[in-house]
Amino acid sequence: MKILASDFDNTLYFHTGFKAEDLQAIKTFQAAGHKFGVCTGRSYNGIVAPSTNVDIHYDFYICLSGGLILDEDGEVLFEKQFPYAIVKEIYARYPVNVSVVYGNAMYLLNDKNNHFKQSIKALYKKMKNQPKENIRFIDQLDDLKAQQIPSFSFHYRRGEHNQAVNLATYINKTYGDYVNAYVNDIHIDVCAKGCSKGHALKQIGDYYHINKEDLCGIGDNFNDLPLLQAAYDSFTFDYAPIAVQKQANHIVPQLSDAIDELLF
Question: Membrane-crossing residues (predicted)?
Fold first, then answer.
C-alpha cells in the first residue's frame, strides 16, 4: 500500500475547481488499495468547504502545514499550537496583510484601504458558486480573543516574493523557538515549531504502518519542499519554480499523471 499526500491549491484544486481526470485517478488509486490525502497550509474547513458536493474521499488531512492532522472522519490525530501574542509582535514590526486560523474560521485583518478584503472578494467572484471556507474580517488583531492558535499567514502582493522570503527568514530566526515559517510564493505560512508537511507525511506513514519507500508526495511551490524531501517518490509540475522542480523525482503536467506513474 502506498500513501500519496497532495498539496491542495494549484495541485489538486484550482480557481476553476477540481479536474475531472484527477478525481478519477484518485478513485482508481484508492480502489487499488492505496491511501490519498491532502497536505496543505489550509485549515480543515478550508478543505472540506470546496470539496462539498465533489466526488472525492480523503483518507487523511494534513492541514496548517502539519500543525493539524486528522483521519478520514475528521478526528484529530495531532495538533500543536503557539502563543497568539507572536502574531501581534511580528505585525507591529511588519504590518503586512495577515490571516489567522482560530476555531473553525479564518480571520483576516482589514488593512487601511480595504485592499485585502477587495482582493478576497475578487477571488471569490472568480470562484463563482463554489463552496467557500468560513472567513471573517476583523479590524484589529485584539478583536480576536485568542491565547493559543495553530497557524497564521502573511500575504504580500504579486511580485513581492523576495519580501516574503525576507520576512520568513526573520520569523524563523527571531521566533524559531516557537514557530516555523514557510514561504508559499508571496505568502508565508506559519505553524508551531517542529511541524512541517514532511514531518506530517511521516506521521501519517506511522499511523498506517507504511514503509518509507511507500510514502509519496506532490506539490507545486516552496512550502511543499519539506513534503517532497520526505517522500520517497516526489512529484511536482512543469509550472512549478525551477528550485522546486530540482527537489522532485518526477515532473508531471498534472496530478493524474503522477498517479498513473505510481500505479503503472
Answer: none
